[in-house]
# Entry
Amino acid sequence: MIPFDPQRHKYPSLRNVVYAKNGMVCSTQPLASQIGLEILKKGGNAMDAAVAVASALPLFEPTCNGIGSDAFALVWTDGKLYGINGSGPSPKALTAEKVRERGYTSMPAVGWCSVTVPGSPACWAEVNRRFGRLPLTEIMAPTVRYAREGFPVQAHLNGMWQMEYEKITKAAKLEPAPYAAWFTTFLNEGRVPAPGEIFRCPDMADTLEELAETNCESFYRGKLAEKILAHSKATGGFLTEEDLASYYPEWVEPLSVSYKGYDVYEMPPNGHGLTVLMALNILKTMDLGNERENADAYHKTMEALKLAFVDAQKYVTDPRFMKVDPKDLLSEAYTEKRRALIGETALFPEAGTPNGSDTVYFCTADGEGNMVSFIQSNAKHFGSGIVVPGTGIALQDRAVNFSLDPQADNFLEGGKKTYHTIIPGFLAKDGKPVGPFGVMGGFMQPQGHVQVVVNTVDFHMNPQEALDAPRFQWVGGKKIQFEHGIADSIAKELLRKGHDIEIVTENRNMGRGQIIWTDGTVLVGGTESRADGCIAAW
# Structure
């Protein structure tokens, strides 16, 4: 092959929106998008395509999600939006005291203390059971084939894979047993696969076949569960037969707010989509101008996000343990109090008192009006670093978001769901769908959602433009990271307003998004230019 650097981008790249009529799949992985389209062409609907992509991405993007991930989805069908929470609770035996006994003063991002019950396989099966047309054996067959025969690694993954190798190598030096299978499963002859190099995972192929044949029951109440529990018992884990056998995903009612004529939908807690809705509530009566590139629009949006974020970080957890009703956080009275705090200078945000990582995101649509907004995540790249031997199952590290402070709403307790960063979004108007959208990337996610909605509604950007626009990220206090591309004059004006501005040249932490909009007849999509984004359309 002609020599070149697949990760160099000397010149800006222009992408146009993509139109289609019969179906569309937008993801960060070209092969996964093609698998989703293949399922649509076989007669599957948008829900079948979503499950196909969800079960493919643990193979194609293992640095972001795995078979042992959590997942959330918003499903539009027959004129109604449904939400499914595929996050799992902490093992009942995992307590703050036991974490401290292992020498930690805060929740670790690797090892058994970080593992909660994975929800993704159960989520796939439940979406398929309720809304799908094709059997899981047919839906997962293309990924099984790729897992056995191999596929070329995309350029964007290599850097994250290398970072994870270094992290897990460090952990394995202290305690090798839990991590041994990671090295035999996710390395090529002891090294990280290079961009374009063929990677195979026959263990994952066998596992996906077992999941498909048992409608994912095996993961929780069958042969795969036995393997997971055996590894947990042998290497100091906390998972028990009861933890897995008692798990089922939950259908939930999405939350929404009206923003300047559009209805924005997010999942309710334990996810932090509430952050998006609180920020948009604050912004909905504010004039952001006609052009996005003005300091006042940036200032107001940044301030609204900061105020929403600190509230979410204080109050969001497993809804059974929340001390505040989400409706109170979205009330007009409380919103007005928070809005009144925004002035001409930067705030150091503090939570109010109301009255009452890494990830994959993708979306699908078919020609019948069905649409799915789906997100799936390990949390921190490969998750806990623990892979169940002989299965290709990488276990997530979602417990990392728990607090060890007994006074915190999100305090670690056995059998409790943690504050969750993964959030799918959906936009509607006048009772009709506009479409699914999402921006993955840890605590960047709600910030990305707000910026996409503002770009779309306030500044009338097309879906590709709304994703391509330079992003910012609040990282704490008055500090804001600006992606390269935001004008120096705007940064200087915001510095004068008291913001601590840092220009970042590495866009890996600015999230990766996908969008599909519809007018009821034609689909139009945008995909992430910061990654290996791909739209497969029919």
Observations:
- The mean pLDDT is 93.
